[in-house]
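Case study 2.
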Amino acid sequence: MPATKYTRNFCIIAHVDHGKTTLSDRLLENTHTIAQRVMTDQHLDSMDLEKERGITIKSHPVTMTYRAKDGHDYKLNLMDTPGHVDFSYEVSRSLAACEGAVLLIDAAQGVEAQTVANAHLAFAQKLKVIPVINKIDLPSANLELCTRQLEDILSIPAEEAILASGKSGIGIVDILEAVVARVPPPRWATYPHLRALVFDSLYDSYRGCIAYVRVFSGTIKANDMMMLMSNGQKAEVKEVGVFMPKMTKIASLGAGDVGYIVSSIKNTSDVKTGDTITLAARPATEMLPGYKEVHPLVFCGLYPLESDDFEKLKAALGRLRLNDAAFVYSSESSLALGFGFRCGFLGLLHMEIIQERIRREHDVEIISTYPSVIYHVIKHGGLQIAVDNPVNMPDPGTIIEIQEPTIRASIILPNDSMGDILALIMEKRGVCEHTDTLDMNRVMLRCVLPLNEILVDFNDRLKSVTHGYGSMDYELGDYLTSDLVKMDIMINGDPVDAFACIVHREKAEAKGRQLCEKLAKIIPPQMFKVAIQAAIGGKIIARDNVREMRKDVTAKCYGGDISRKRKLLDKQKEGKKKMKQIGKVSIPPDAFIKVLQNN
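Prediction:
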């Protein structure tokens, strides 16, 4: 009788806000994993930000014991996963650590873009998917629509669906029984060597790096020498344990277990998500499948509002990096904003969350420059370089072509918003390749869009055009050649690096004009006329002027001949001309901040 017969590993996947965390709260209550007196809402979401926004940012595992109707005690390992598209790699690693997935569908909203994407991730990992229609006690619940969508869009038989409500606790026992009956016992348990999949890691200031693992085969205990298979790094195991949901120390982790390993490794960037841990004395020959390096897609500069806070910001970024291996940063400086850092993120939500955490957890006020992506620039002689900062763009004369990253997006939206969304896609230089009708009211568009076009406001506009009913999921596409140019903003003839950006040639003029107008309003009046210009290479494409302060030199002339006034005005004009030759424009830092914040 294998030891793993009564173990089940499963995760909960869903679109953002379909009730994953509430449902996991009910499962914890039902299996008496947490005493009622310490139970809180959204118990597995540990960060304030997660609770406020109602999103899961880090995946949280928990081990539960459940006495099934057949009289046996089962060990259930549950992994709560993030729902947002930025964290899809984290979702795929959590799925790789399971044999089954509970797919949640909101009874009022039906199947959404992330539901489809996460279900396909689960099918690709060959998991047993248990569909659960959640929130059935809502007045707006439409069960008939949900069951039809299950069959039409996801090809899952409607009779497999379990009706539940995380809020009022309906159907919780049915879900637990379905997990026991339908999810297969742990796979690959008979492999002769230790193999444990790292699906997350965490930095603890007292114990160093803690790896969250799912053990597939073999056992691991304290004092063993472990080895990471991607880089061959060896370390001593200090402690192993399981999540109940707090970390609880146990003697050893065996096949099928989900738990944590505290080792002598001090840096989380060494323990990568998706890596395989084995024993150094008897290493496994092949890694668990599906490991890939995860790379940042979006870059922006972060600068402290007060230059004295630079060291504080540096320490904050260092600490965030410890818990988030996908976040990268390096130092840079700007004439306008002083010293700061160039940071790389998985996507816009990731960027927003890191910035918010710097402000809250580390109390540093920051300003971020315009987000940009990595471009591939091919120069004469076939040399290809990667550019993530417009300031590093080589001279236009040396460039053969510039390639930009694209995304393949699936957008689910109501039929009546179709025209507006197609116009939005065209405006963002996208191409709609395919349209699927999902049901009477909704369609799914598959389109290719340039990544830098969707960075700033695409998701907001998608939500406003579809009145909140549209949803989007995307994956990275190919690099395509495009007519891109670097646009500089010059103030009094000097380029300002904080406003430099890479734009499509057709959109450069409109964007340049908009930036010049904004700057002309924000920069305070100067003693002489100051030109603000947008330029591509040596060509000026837009211009505006900062207001000039003027003394009324003719105030003392009353009546009399015009030539006296003319003489005074000419004298003033000469003075202004001289001032312009030697004068410098002083731009207060808050002018930059206002422009960048408006962007």
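The CA atoms of residues 60 and 340 lie 33 Å apart.
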